[in-house]
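Bug #2210: token dump truncated for Ring finger protein 32?
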Amino acid sequence: RHMHKHCRADRFSTAFQDHIMRSLLHPDFSLSDPLRRHSRGKHPQQEEREYVLDPAPPPLTLAQKLGLVASPRERLTEDEWTRVKERSVQQEESAQPCAICREEFQLQPQVLLSCSHVFHRACLQAFERFSGRKRCPLCRREPYETRVINDAARLFRHRCATRIQTYWRGYMARKWYRTIKKTICPKDKRLKRQFFESRLQELNDSFVRYCHTDTEAFLSDIDRSLSSSRRVFQQLERKSVSESQENDWDRIKSQVIQRGVWDCPICLTRRPTVLLSCSHLFHQLCLEAFEAFSGDSRPLCPLCRSAYHKKLI
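Reproduced locally. Full output below:
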């Protein structure tokens, strides 16, 4: 009998040790396990489908089979999940912000717990990772099961569609009202006066725009006429400033002698000079430098700004 008690105690001790080792080596986290998250990759056809995230429960340990440790609860059936979701809908969990990050769910992944509370999937994953246990952040129930739902995404899409339709209906109503206001004359005397004032203002503005367009065309015609006149005058000037004859150069030289100025107006020194057809004298190098600097096809005299021919004297 003593041996029987000793064997029974050894069996219980072994069962407890096995249960503790399995609990430490295989913690049951539904969202924090990277291998399970990788194996359950996202597929396009699963975006609107609801499914349970928790894996199949592990086999019972020896301590649980002997009744030394309480066995885990059985997993929820589809009917039980339906009742949990109905309770969550009645509490409007999906219409409220996430209790962890206090932000709207919008289109982000959403999970429903077996206690009918709803959180962001990423928020619950971070909470489980830092707390080290599966405990609901609101009601502290543990352990719990998790299920992916899409109620918040549907509510967000419906809210966005409603807002877009509201803005569109408002835009169309305002556009229709402005059209009616412009085309139909009101019966009130004050409003009728404002109606005709606005119509007259529109006519005046259109007339001003038409006149403005004509003015621009008139100014364009003036610019074209001026450019053609300049071309004619330039041709006449080039024709008048032709190659001077020898008697012309003698007359020009006599004008220089009468003036008595033999210094170059550019460098003010005495060196070989060039006589221009306008009777001004310059050094050859100074005049060539001036012509190169001006860059004009028809250079002008540095003093009188007239076109010229030059002659070395």
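Output looks complete on our side. The longest strand covers residues 110-113. Marking as cannot-reproduce; reopen if the truncation happens again.
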